[in-house]
């Protein structure tokens, strides 16, 4: 069994999803429609942890009534997270002020319902961290972290997690993060089906990502896989017997 902490499962077709039976997947959403689709997928499959949210790339098309719809999903789902939510100064800086309003709403929701946050923070690593601190968030995962190494230490010292992507094979900055991060605070993700520098990302690349991370850290594959599994279960809040 492998554990994918951040995947856009709703974007894969039915046959592809069937091929992920050996993976426990934290399935993130982009908007209300995909959040509802993610919830349905989780109801039909035991290996899916649903994450509901509005991606910072699409907040320009969203309204605060959409946040209310996300909250309704959270309120009636026993095991879930909020995601993909967050801030982005790198790709959509023009909507940053609106992103902040939406992110603060989701952070408030996470605290109220006691659910983890699966967070996007491209180009806004410090801003995301400060919002989490301000609201005293207990559980947050900053996915595909490529931010400053000194901030990485602050993030993990606070108890928050970051996730390592198969892109560490081709992205030097991400490899540096993979080498430095406290293993007690690391998860592994695919971010599938995103394509990056020739990599078509999918949960099936999780074993390869583990292999590369184990090599970079001088660990055994199985030893690292066990650490990541334990971290995943602790972060999303379910027992060994669940899967």
Molecular shape: globular
CATH architecture: Alpha-Beta Barrel
Share of residues in strands: 15-25%
Radius of gyration over all CA atoms, rounded: 16 Å
Would you tell me which CATH topology applies?
Answer: TIM Barrel
Strand order of the main beta sheet, please?
A: 1-2-3-4-5-6-7-8
Number of helices: 9
Give the biggest sheet. Answer: 8 strands, parallel
CA(first)-CA(last) distance? 9 Å
Low-confidence stretches: none
Total domain units: 1
Mean pLDDT: 96
Reading off the top of the CATH hierarchy, the class is best stated as Alpha Beta
Q: Find the CATH superfamily.
A: Metal-dependent hydrolases
Order of helices and strands: EHEHEHEHEHEHEHEEEHH
The share of residues in helices is 40-55%
- The helix-and-strand class reads alpha/beta
How would you sum up this structure in a few lines?
The protein has helices at 14-18, 32-44, 64-75, 96-113, 125-134, 149-157, 172-180, 206-217, 221-236, and strands at residues 2-7, 23-27, 48-52, 81-86, 117-120, 140-142, 161-164, 186-188, 195-196, 199-200.
Written description of the protein model:
This protein has 243 residues and is an alpha/beta fold. It has a single domain (2-242), classed as Metal-dependent hydrolases (TIM Barrel, Alpha-Beta Barrel). 43% of the residues lie in helices and 16% in strands. It is built from nine helices and ten strands. Strands 1-2-3-4-5-6-7-8 form an eight-stranded parallel beta sheet. Strands 9-10 form a two-stranded antiparallel sheet. α4 links the parallel β4 (81-86) and β5. α3 runs parallel beside α4 and α8 (206-217) packs across α9 (221-236). The longest helix has 18 residues, at 96-113. It is globular, with a radius of gyration of 16 Å. The mean pLDDT is 96.
């Amino acid at each position: 069994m492998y554990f994918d902490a951040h995947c856009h499962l709703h974007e894969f077709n039915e046959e592809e999803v069937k091929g992920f039976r050996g993976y426990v997947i934290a399935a993130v959403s982009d908007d209300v429609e995909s959040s509802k689709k993610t919830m349905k997928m989780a109801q039909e499959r035991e290996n899916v942890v649903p994450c509901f949210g509005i991606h910072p790339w699409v907040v320009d098309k969203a309204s605060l009534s959409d946040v209310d719809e996300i909250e309704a999903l959270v309120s009636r789902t026993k095991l879930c997270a909020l995601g993909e939510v967050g801030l982005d100064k790198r790709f959509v800086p023009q909507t940053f002020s609106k992103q902040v309003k939406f992110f603060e709403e989701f952070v408030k929701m996470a605290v109220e319902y006691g659910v983890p946050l699966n967070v996007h923070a491209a180009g806004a690593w410090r801003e995301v961290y400060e919002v989490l601190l301000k609201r005293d968030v207990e559980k947050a995962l900053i996915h595909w972290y490529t931010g400053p190494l000194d901030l990485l230490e602050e993030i993990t010292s606070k108890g928050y997690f970051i996730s390592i992507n198969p892109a560490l094979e081709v992205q030097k900055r991400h490899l540096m993060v993979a080498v430095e991060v406290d293993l007690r605070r690391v998860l592994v993700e695919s971010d599938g089906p995103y394509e990056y520098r020739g990599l078509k990302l999918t949960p099936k690349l999780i074993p390869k990502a583990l292999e590369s991370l184990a090599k970079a850290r001088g660990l055994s594959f199985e030893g690292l896989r066990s650490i990541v599994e334990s971290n995943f279960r602790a972060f999303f809040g379910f027992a060994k017997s669940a899967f």
